[in-house]
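Title: Comparing notes on inverse folding

I've been comparing how different people in this forum approach sequence design from structure. To keep things fair, I'm posting one structure and asking everyone to reply with a full sequence. Here's the target:
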């Protein structure tokens, strides 16, 4: 897990309340420098579980890896605008300098482009001046007034809004605009299917422990006061914004509507992102989503 990620918050809650031992497991957290390090560690077998997105999992499955996905969070991000921005709709982005956290294959950017094609009949990649980069760097560019908008991850969006930024559209709203359930979780726990089948009891206990941690974070403000040292800010307004955004991203369901939506969404991503994004996969394998044995 990342030292500054929400998985670290949940593990902290588990440790303070001894939820892992209460459910009969021991969680050993390895802090890694970045998301790519986590993916490498999982593929190398040095960790059992990471947090990632199901599109990456599907790509790995298409290349022979037996990875599966279990929902973790619906929170992905938003397109933020500076205070006083005249932009009111996607068509107003024409000619504007738009920061995009990640690179040209960032999934939120591809989904925004897909929505633009649907709503304004144009590809935003040809309409805006994209500036790709790491979220912290783009945050500074945004605050310095050198960007007209910023498509960024949810925790960075939450950092900007107490200072006056406003969202033009969230990734959840983009999904809705594309005819996909807003409840579809993009992020999840990822692990090897063979490991899960060999360790069903341990996985079930881990799932119960993380669910218990989420319940505490969803219901108790005291938990967030304890978490403050891990949140990267002393600003009470920002801490509140992060708490609100985290709670809003807790998955409420993952039923047929969400699974069907994932199939449609993957087709969109494959069309716009191509093999560079989805690898050799031409359609979503339903087996990408882990189902607990009865």
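Reply #1:
Here's my take.
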């Amino acid at each position: 897990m990342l030292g500054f990620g929400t998985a670290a918050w949940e593990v902290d809650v588990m440790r303070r309340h001894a939820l892992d031992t209460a459910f009969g497991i021991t969680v050993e957290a390895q802090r890694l420098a970045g998301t790519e390090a986590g993916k490498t560690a999982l593929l190398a077998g040095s960790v059992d579980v990471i947090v990632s997105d199901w599109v990456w999992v599907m790509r790995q499955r298409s290349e022979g890896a037996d990875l599966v996905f279990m929902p973790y969070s619906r929170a992905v991000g938003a397109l933020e605008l500076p205070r006083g921005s005249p932009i009111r709709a996607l068509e107003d982005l024409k000619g504007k300098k738009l920061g995009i956290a990640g690179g040209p294959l960032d999934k939120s950017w591809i989904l925004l482009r897909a929505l633009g094609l649907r709503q304004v009949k144009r590809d935003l990649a040809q309409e805006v001046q994209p500036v790709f980069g790491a979220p912290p760097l783009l945050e500074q560019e945004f605050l310095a007034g050198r960007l007209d908008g910023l498509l960024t991850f949810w925790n960075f969006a939450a950092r900007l809004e107490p200072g006056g930024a406003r969202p033009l559209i969230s990734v959840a709203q983009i999904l809705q605009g594309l005819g996909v359930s807003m409840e579809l979780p993009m992020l999840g726990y990822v692990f090897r299917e063979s490991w899960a089948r060999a360790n069903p009891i341990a996985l079930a206990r881990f799932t119960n422990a993380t669910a218990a941690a989420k319940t505490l974070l969803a219901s108790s403000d005291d938990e967030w006061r304890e978490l403050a040292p891990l949140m990267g800010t002393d600003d009470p307004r920002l801490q509140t914004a992060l708490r609100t955004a985290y709670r809003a991203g807790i998955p409420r369901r993952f039923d047929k509507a969400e699974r069907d939506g994932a199939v449609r969404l993957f087709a969109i991503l494959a069309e716009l992102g191509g093999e560079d994004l989805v690898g050799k996969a031409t359609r979503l394998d339903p087996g990408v989503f882990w189902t607990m044995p009865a």
